[in-house]
Amino acid sequence: MLADRLYCYSIIWIAFLALAQNTQAIKKISVVGSINADTFLHVHRIPVEGENLTCDREPTVDIAGGKGCTQAIAASKLLHNQDDIRVAFACRFGNDPVAEALQQALVSAHLDLSASKSVPMVASGRGYVFLTASGQVSAVVSGGSNQYGWNEWKESWDIYQRNPVAKLIVDHEIEQILDECQCLMLQREIPEYVNELLAAKAQERGNIIVLQDVGGEDRPMTSEHMRNCDYLIPNETELYRLVASFEGKSANEVVDTQDVTALAKHLQLHGARHILVTQGSRGCTLLTVDGDVVTHPAIHTDRVVDETGAGDCFRAGFAVALLEGKPSNECLSFASAAGCLAVETQGAVPSAPTRDDVMARMQIQHAVESLRGGGSEMEEDSTFPFLIGSRLNSMKDRPELWQGHSLETPRDFVERQATVEGLTCVDFNYPQHFGSYWTVSEARASLKEAGLVAGAVCLRYPKEFARGAMNHPDPAMRRQAIDLTKEAAQVALDLGCREVVVWSAYDGYDYPFQCDYDTKWRELVDAFRECCDTFPDVRFSVEYKPTDENTRFFTIPSTGAALLMAQHVDRPNFGLTLDVGHMLMSGENPGQSIAMVGKKLFGVQLNDGYTRLAAEDGLMFGSVHPSMALEIMYQLRKIDFDGHLYFDTFPQRSDPVAEAEYNIRRVKAFYKAAGRLLLENRERLQEIQAAHDAVGALEMVDDALKNM
User: Fold this and answer.
1) What is the pTM of this model?
2) Which of 84, 94, 232, 352 has a CA-to-CA distance to 6 between 20 and 30 Å?
3) What is the DSSP string of 271-306?
4) Residue 310, Cβ neighbours under 10 Å: how many?
5) What is the pLDDT of residues 621-654, one digit of tens each?
6) Looking at the annotation, which residues are catalytic?
């Protein structure tokens, strides 16, 4: 009893001294949450249930992590040189050797740790992260002190009015956290009663912005707690689960999962205020308490190393920008840049970017958006998200229309393409567009001079591979083809595009019994695996074709076969490039093929054709099949396609510059019309598809095309 009284008196005296201090108020972000020692296990793919994998290399151990820790350090780094704002972090350290290293990481980040403490007889939290070469992650977390270090708060929460000692202890800790605080950041890797008590106390004060990250443990949330949070920040999966918990359903049963705004509005009916939904490659959506909807596209990066901590850096960026008084769209832009930079570095805490990094990335993004926006005729749809390229060799057609000095080399072709309004990138053929024409560095310099960037490097195996490239009967020739593909990957890296499209005019056969199909298939699988493993930062995609004058039957003749190849290659950086003309030749509906491929779609080549003799016409996009063109853009929107668009057309009797500009205008119009189907006509489309209503579908398409 004496010890309890002495402890109680000491707490009262500390509180009195704190109140007696007459210091100038400084803005403060208080982060309350978890801290873990993370171990990264490097694997070539995420394991499935019941599977044992061996690490590709030695694990990386005891890296500071956890949602609270990452958000606190990220906020501190993003507030660099902001003397009037500081970041405080309240957490629970375990009683083990790793706790000292974790504490030092926080001290090095200049965090105020006055509300943090160690917990006896409890181990520190730990995270075990499976990490692939492409940046995919899956994790198992042991809560440790994050889970069991808040027992005094639980006692206070359960018997708040009947245990004055517990109440006094917790009240003092709450005062430490909320004193001078303008923004309170909460996550769910600590007990929910801590979040609920802090949010309620913050709302009583009335001058603290409360941000609740829904990530962490999957558990229900009360309406009362949502009312106490100014901003609820889930990702899409967390949003579905939260809505489902109020509906008494599973997340998979939540209707209309594409419409995050409708789901967010559903949460507002249960007490939520502002809801910010992070949507990965689709960016984010903010639904304000007044019903306004603010969207922001994702900032693309070609260098995905580790997605761990990206969401935490996004949330820290949003909090910092919000506290600095930026409007909503600027807050989302700042947060998106922070999240984008985070995926480019391994580890949660090490990936947290600096303020200078974020500002520089925002400037680059602004320049890219200006480049993508095109000229005067393109400004109508400034939200068009794709870089656009067109077949470089088409620039040699109709030379009499060109006012330049010559049309003999790829350098000349790039110069002519630079005059195409709205064109933003160039796809090169390898090795045909290099060698004696120019070096890779000279090609990159020419692109910069023309105001363009590289889109992809496309394999065009020379004629010595006429009996097969990676399917050649001679092992030495197969080795040459594989090495040539690797050379193309290095060229892509040197050009800055990180994408290789593999189309072989020769991998196939002409007659029955000419080759062993199983052997040819295994040769391609092994070859693609080798290329993917050698260049894990490059995306390799196979462009299938059903038939050609060089090869009557290709080894990969259809979308289904290409998907099977992707399954057998089993590498995250291997996918498909779909050519509209090739899909038509295969008797496929391009929209359905795109839906089948989904996230494995790395590239799209747009054109059109009559296909009367299984010919690849290479006509202008949407010129023959406008309804298919509309559905192509609809499906690309639906699967969140994140590549660039390329026009594979053959304007032998047309002005190639004028044709490219027509294609660009048309694809933007189709993209915009598809957006209206997704947003404005969603319910009508759902009714049509539910009833298999052919006439209704045609009428809807007619309306969409009329309004283009």
Assistant:
1) 0.55
2) 94
3) T--EEEEE-GGG-EEEE-TTS-EEEEPPPP-S----
4) 24
5) 999 999 999 999 999 998 889 889 999 999 988 9
6) 312
